[in-house]
Each structure stands twice: as C-alpha cells, then as structure tokens.
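Repro:
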Amino acid sequence: METLLLNREDVGENARMDEVIVAVEEAFAAYQHGNVQMPAKSYIDLPQYNGDFRSMPAYMDAGDWDAAGVKWVNVHTDNPENHDLPTVLGTMIYSDPTNAFPLALMDGTTLTRKRTGAAAAVATDHLAVAGASSLGIVGAGIQSHTQLEAISVVRDIETVVVADKRADAVERFIEVYGDEFDIRGGSIGEAASCDVLSTVTPVESPIVDHEDVGEHTHINAMGADAPGKNELDEEIVTNAKLVIDDYEQCTHSGEINVPWSRGLIDDDDLYGELGEIVTGDTPGRTPEDGISVFDSTGLAIQDIATAHVVYEHANERGNGTPFELVDTRVR
C-alpha cells in the first residue's frame, strides 16, 4: 500500500469549495450529534520566534463515511516579512480509521485556507440576511481570498470592500477578483457596514468599532486565535447574537476570550454553537435579529472533512504522488 503525497496544487485542485462547504457543514452536524472525537488543540508557544505550533487530531463519523487525521500547524506572524513564508503553515496526515494506514500526506496550509473559508460560509448561510449582497473583508492576506470564494457560494455577493493598511495587498486582491465582483479598497468602517463582514487579521486588540457595523450585519470573526487577542470592540460582542464553533476553544482563545476573561459576557450571552444551528436544534437568523457574530477558532474536524474531499477526488483522478511512507510488512 502506498500513501498519496498531495502538494499545494493537488489540494487546491481537489478541494472544490462548494463540496468543502457541504463537508464542513457535515462536520458541524457530526459534532452536534456526538459522532466525533476531538481532543483539545494543544499549543507549543515560541515567543522567541513570535510564533507557535498547534496539533489538531480528530476522528469523525459523517454517516456515509468516516475518517481520522491530525494537522500540525503554526502561526508565525513575522514569516511574511522576515522569511518570505506564509504566516500559517500546515501539514495534514489523513488516515483510514479501520486500520490506521496513512492514506495521504497533504499540504495543510491550503487545506486550512479552504476549510476556514468554508466555515465562514456555513455560518453566513445560517446567520446572514437572505438577500446579503455586500461583503466587507478586514485583512487582505491569503485567508481573505477563501472568505470571498466561499461566502459567494452561499450568498449572491456583488460588492466587496477590502480594508488593509497594506495598499499592495488590497491591489493584489482586486487584481484577482476584480473581473468577477465590484471590488474596492476602503476603510475598516466601510467594510464593517456591509451585509457580511469577515475579519481575518492577526491583531491583538480591537480594530472594528461598533458604530461602524451595519444594523443587520453578520460578522465572521476569524482572526483571534490565542488568549488576549480579539478584533471586535467589546460593545459589538456584548450586544450581538453570539454563535461559537466550540465552547472550550472560543472561551480560551477565540474572539470572545477577552470580554469573557473580564466578566463582560458569560454562558447566558452565548446564543449557541454552530452545530446546533446546522442540525436545526437551534434556529439560525430570525427576523428580529440585528448584528450576529460567528466566533471561529477552527476545529480539527473541519480539516478532516476537507481532507476527505481532497483525498477522494485526488484518488479518483490519479492526482498526487504515491510513495511508500510506512513499512506494511506483517512481522
């Protein structure tokens, strides 16, 4: 038996966003139904390198299929400037749970981007107004691309406002998508006034003001990934309809972790987890809703679900490079 090596191009080609969104929604449903095993994300903090490593193992049973795997991923904020590398790098090991054979070793960086966009799309589909046509994005890094790619699958996005202090990053974004959407650079306030807002920055203190957010804007808060980090001012969080992906992770290191640690919000302020909404156990957007916030910390089951889509297609199409990773001889 051979393991399939899948590089960036292989993962990108086989991770069709519409299918990844469906798979990630299935992952949230499986989580709600208790059909997953997902130990807490573990961290290795490396302040001397302004970065960290995270290990993310999981198993999920989606009914028609099941899979297991682990993602080894980092966040090194100095990478783009000092090492000409992405802030986030990752490697995914995708395994057959019936016998533990490593079916694939794949680029986890592209995988992370795809599943992060898909998670925002799932939340947007259930929490944004039905006629949402404008998308604001704060942060024009690589994660911003899959936010647009994914959210435009679930809503008919026409207008996009991108805010970033790096003018060159905004220009690159417009070059990529300018033929498909009405895109312009703008302020954070202008982005926040859109029907949907995705924040994908590494900032450690709030940059989005409550007064700038539209009355019915849905916000995908994607950037906060460590204790003490948040992108939205406290007035947004304390007044919005709050939906989280995972209680332990969000209270520890998600968008809500700072107001939570300060006692400004507690369990009573959380509307629910996205899995509850996906399964219909809890309603999504209702007519009386104003601002809604999805606090996304990223779950290992999202990686497993996306890896499943990638592997199945790559295997069918003969993509990737088969190689002998492990000795399969019975001793």
